[in-house]
Each structure stands twice: as structure tokens, then as C-alpha cells.
């Protein structure tokens, strides 16, 4: 799946201008396609915008179309009161592809660059009815 997505990330006409529009207050999700157990969305990030720490309903393959996405992955500590433990941190730039799958999909993503970032996400679930691929958000009690 990653190789197929990567082959399209350099296309200048992959997304319409509307599908590359951000939101001033939060990252923006544009549904592109959903059917038979998978979905494709474009996420648009203005500088500094980020997700909460979260996990997903299904596997995901992500390709950066423009700009760069920063990602911090986490694991849950093994105590009676689960705590988040930061593991690897990466910067994915235009053309980079990565993937994750439950249960190892706990992370936070943000635009740490100076310009707009746009990424394509292919999820192994039809998330169109739910509106999001996020299964659970981990709040301050987990930090």
C-alpha cells in the first residue's frame, strides 16, 4: 500500500485547491473516498496545528503531499495507573510514507514547519459514517 501511495505524492494535480484548504483553528480533514472497509482522507495542517495523543480504529498508511509532519509515538506504561511513555519521534517530509496499526498506533502528529502541510491517509476502515479514524484520545490523566 505504501508504494502505491508514494507513487502519487509528487503529482501537482492530486488534490483540488479546496482539498488543500486548511482551517485557522485546527487541522482540517477532507474525505476523498470511502468504500468496502477503507477510507482515503487528506489532512491539512497550518503551522503549529496538532492532534491530541490518540489511537485508531484500524491500520493507516500516511503519505506527506506537501510540507512536513512531525510525529511522536507513545506506549502505555505497565502500572496500575497507565502512563504514556514517549518512544520514537520522526519528521516526515513531502514524499515520505509511513504506517501504523493497532495496538502500536498511539501517537500525536503536528505541523512543526513554517508552511502548510498536507498529507494523505489511507485507513483500513470505512470511517465516513463515524467522521474520524480516532478510536480514543488520551488526555492529561495519561501523561
Q: Keywords, please?
A:
Jelly Rolls; 3% helix; 143 residues; 3-stranded antiparallel sheet
Which ranges are low-confidence, i.e. pLDDT below 50, for 5 or more consecutive residues?
none
From the alpha carbons, calculate the radius of gyration and give it in angstroms: 15 Å
Biggest pleated-sheet summary: 5 strands, antiparallel
The CATH superfamily turns out to be Jelly Rolls
Q: How many helices in DSSP terms?
A: 1
**Average pLDDT taken over every residue:** 87
Terminal Cα separation, in Å? Answer: 33 Å
Highest CATH level, the class: Mainly Beta
Total number of strands: 10
Strand arrangement in the largest pleated sheet: 1-2-9-4-7
The percentage of residues in β strands lies in 35-45%
**What general form does the structure show?**
globular
Count of distinct structural domains: 1
Q: How helix-rich are the residues, as a percent range?
A: under 10%
Topology:
Blueprint: H1 2-6, E1 28-35, E2 38-45, E3 54-56, E4 60-66, E5 68-76, E6 84-93, E7 97-100, E8 107-110, E9 117-123, E10 134-137
Antiparallel strand pairs: 1-2, 2-9, 3-10, 4-7, 4-9, 5-6, 5-8
Please provide a written account of the structure.
This protein has 143 residues and is mainly beta. It has one domain: Jelly Rolls, CATH 2.60.120. 3% of the residues lie in helices and 45% in strands. The strands form three sheets. Strands 1-2-9-4-7 form a five-stranded antiparallel sheet. A hairpin with a 2-residue loop joins strand 1 (28-35) and strand 2 (38-45). Keywords: Dioxygenase, Iron, Metal-binding, Oxidoreductase. This is Cysteine dioxygenase family protein. GO terms for molecular function: dioxygenase activity. Belongs to the cysteine dioxygenase family.
Amino acid at each position: 500500500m505504501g508504494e502505491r501511495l508514494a507513487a502519487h505524492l509528487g503529482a501537482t494535480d492530486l488534490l483540488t485547491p479546496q482539498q488543500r484548504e486548511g482551517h485557522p483553528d485546527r487541522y482540517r480533514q477532507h474525505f476523498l473516498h470511502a468504500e468496502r472497509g477503507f477510507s482515503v482522507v487528506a489532512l491539512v495542517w497550518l503551522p503549529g496545528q496538532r492532534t491530541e495523543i490518540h489511537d485508531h480504529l484500524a491500520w493507516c498508511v500516511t503519505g506527506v503531499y506537501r510540507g512536513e509532519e512531525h510525529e511522536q509515538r507513545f506506549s502505555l506504561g505497565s502500572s496500575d495507573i497507565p502512563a504514556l511513555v514517549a518512544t520514537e519521534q520522526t519528521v516526515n517530509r513531502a514524499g515520505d510514507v509511513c504506517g501504523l496499526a493497532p495496538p502500536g498506533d498511539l501517537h500525536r502528529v503536528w505541523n512543526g514547519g513554517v508552511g502548510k502541510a498536507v498529507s494523505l491517509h489511507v485507513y483500513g476502515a470505512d470511517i465516513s459514517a463515524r467522521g474520524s479514524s480516532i478510536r480514543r484520545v488520551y488526555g492529561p490523566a495519561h501523561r
